Structure formats: structure tokens, C-alpha cells
Amino acid sequence: MQRVFEWRKRCSNGTCPQISPTGFRTTARFGGLHLTRALLSRGYVTEELARMQRAGALTRVRRGAYTRAKATDEDTIEDRHRQLILATMPQLDSQAVVSHASAALLHGLPTWPEAISRVHVTRDRRGGARRRTLVEVHGAPLAPSDLMVIDGQPVTSLSRTVIDLGRTLPWEQAVAAGDRALRSGLTAAELVDTLDRMRGWPGIIAARRTIDFLDARSESAGESVSRVRIHEAGLPAPTPQLEVCDEHGRFVARVDFGWEEERTVGEFDGKIKYGVLLKPGQTARDAVLAEKRREDMLRDLGWQVVRWIWAELYRRGVIEDRVRRAFARAA
After folding, report:
1. What CA–CA distance (Å, rounded) separates 114 from 222?
2. Residues 5-48: pLDDT tens digits?
3. pLDDT by residue (tens digit) across 253-305?
4. Out of 46, 115, 268, 294, which could bridge 101 as a Cys pair, Cβ 3.0 to 4.6 Å?
5. Ramachandran sector of residue 6 (left: φ over 0; alpha: ψ -120 to 50; beta: rest)
6. Nearest-CA neighbor of 308 among 252, 233, 216?
7. What is the DSSP pairing of strand 304-308 with strand 251-259?
8. Over the Cα atoms of the chain, what is R_g?
9. How far apart are alpha carbons 117 and 120 in whole angstroms?
10. Interhelix angle for 171-183 vs 221-232, to 10°?
């Protein structure tokens, strides 16, 4: 516990790591958060706050916290969880550090809805885990190198967060977060160092398995889960982001997964290719036609093309059957 006090003292002097990842929405996004105790200290009374809430002037985020912004259809699960973190942390004692899936969200890592149904925090102690309606408390040692600040919130470092996810989450979720962390600059050496310091902790064997499987070439959570499903099916390991060239060495396409010996490529269709990622001046119809031409070129070169979507990642056997039939056709 003394280590956390010392770390917080350094932070007050501006000497602890602080980052502000792109896309993190601060309280300004939600019209500002207001703690009940602060409103009461300014002269409001409980009945008045209740009337303001009924009138729509205040929106209750959780017990003890309001915002002046109204919820909209544009607010995602991630948006609401960020808001819940901001509303929760001031109401916890100074030893609480945002961790696990909540820290992953603040670091910009992919998360699953069930993983962020509560705000996850860690306290620097052994044991004492508790699960409440909105908060899950983890008890584990925290080294100074495990801590940093993101937009004013004390958060576990990127490497500590990835290891914690590997210890506690389903494998595909932990892999998706770890792949994104590597793409964002986390190094294997940092992960190994953090892993070694946590030797013998619950779930550390699962975390080591996750770390050994990570690949920075995965460009989306869906591609990461695809790699897990391919591995679980016992298929040969593909080359992520394989560049395919024609017989003259000219570039034809870069594919999500490539099995060169089997002359088969795999494509995960979950990246909204025909909408958000349109090139300037390109319509959705243009994008669909360009993708069809690209696939035709691959087939003309003798490659089999296999595609799958998010839902098929959770239908056991679908990808394996599709890929093995492509192998057979190529043979």
C-alpha cells in the first residue's frame, strides 16, 4: 500500500506517466459529471435534485453522480462505461486503481460487453476481492511500474493490463486486447518482465499462453478471434496480412490470412469495408465492385478465397469446414 501512496505523491509532482489516448471521451463529452455531495455543498437539496432529474435537467449516472447530458442512441456501451468510470472513481478511496477490462477500455483496447458490465479496480493488497453491482474490486500487489494516469484517472499500465486480462478473461478476448496492445507499441520484453514479476499468481499460466500467441499483425479484434478459432480447429497457422503477387511479381492484394502451400486466403468480413472505410469520393457500390474485382484476380491466380463474419466466429466448426474444403479444391 505504501508503494501506491509514493506513486500518487510522484503524480502530484508531475513525474508519473500520463497519456491521453485518441478517442477517450472526457466529462466534457457528457456535459460534465456532478457528484451529489458537491451539489449539496453548493446549496441544492435532495428534493430539488430529484425534481431536476424528473424534468430531464439532470441524468443519474449512478448513485452519487449526475450529468447534464441526456443519453442518446449514439452512446455506445464503451461510452457509457467510460462515463461510469468517471462517476465511480471519485467515490472510491485513494487506493483504487482502474484495472482489467476497464483499464483496457481507457487504453483503447477492444473489450466485450460482459467484461465491462462493472467498473474494475485493483487495490494494492493480497486478496480481498469483492463484486458489487457496479464495481468489481481485485486485490493484488501493484508495483510503481504497473501504474500510470490516463486523463486524470489512475490506471494499470498497458503491460499489466494485458497480463491481468490474460489471467481472467476468455482466451479470445485476451488475445484481441494483447494484439492491439502490441500494435500500439507495447513490446514483448515489457510483457515478459511484467509476467515474471507475477509468477505464481492465479491465472498466470493462462496469461503466459496468451502472451505466447499474440501477433501484432492482427489488425482488428475479429482477426484476433479468427486466429484463435483457426488454432482451436487444428488448422495450419496462416500468415497474417499476406501480400499476394502475380507471376511477374506485381502486387495484387494483401489478405487477412494466407496459407501459401494450400493456395488459400481467408478474409474476415467485419471491418465495415463498404461504409466507414470508404476512400474519398468512393461509394459503397464502388467498394463492393472493387472487392469483387480483387477476389476475381486472386481466383484467376489459382487462390481459393474463404470468407467469414463475426457471427460465424461463434459457430463451432464453420470456419474449419470452409477452410478445409478450400484446401481440398486447391489440391
Report:
1. 17
2. 454 444 444 344 443 332 333 333 334 788 888 888 888 899 99
3. 999 999 999 999 999 987 555 455 566 776 767 777 778 888 999 999 999 99
4. 115
5. alpha
6. 233
7. unpaired
8. 24
9. 9
10. 130
As a whole number of angstroms, the distance between CA 217 and CA 224 comes to 9
Which residue is associated with the grid cell 467510460?
A: 82
Cell numbers given for 303: 487462390
Q: Could you identify the residue written with the cell 509532482?
A: 13
Choose among 97, 218, 215: nearest CA to 161. 97
Q: 224 and 271 in contact (C-beta within 8 Å)?
A: no
Q: Which residue has the higher pLDDT, 250 or 3?
A: 250
Question: Torsions phi, psi of 48, nearest 5?
Answer: -65, -40
Strands across the sheet with 119-124, in order?
18-19, 147-150, 153-156, 97-98, 119-124, 135-140, 130-131
Q: Where are the chain's structural domains? A: 2-32+69-158, 221-330
Query: Other CB atoms closer than 10 Å to residue 328's CB: what's the count?
Result: 11
Question: Looking at the domain 221-330, which fold is it?
Answer: Endonuclease; Chain A (3.40.960)
Residue 170 DSSP SS3 = coil
pLDDT tens-digit readout, 142-196: 999 999 999 889 999 999 999 999 999 999 999 999 999 999 999 999 999 999 9
The whole-model pTM stands at 0.85
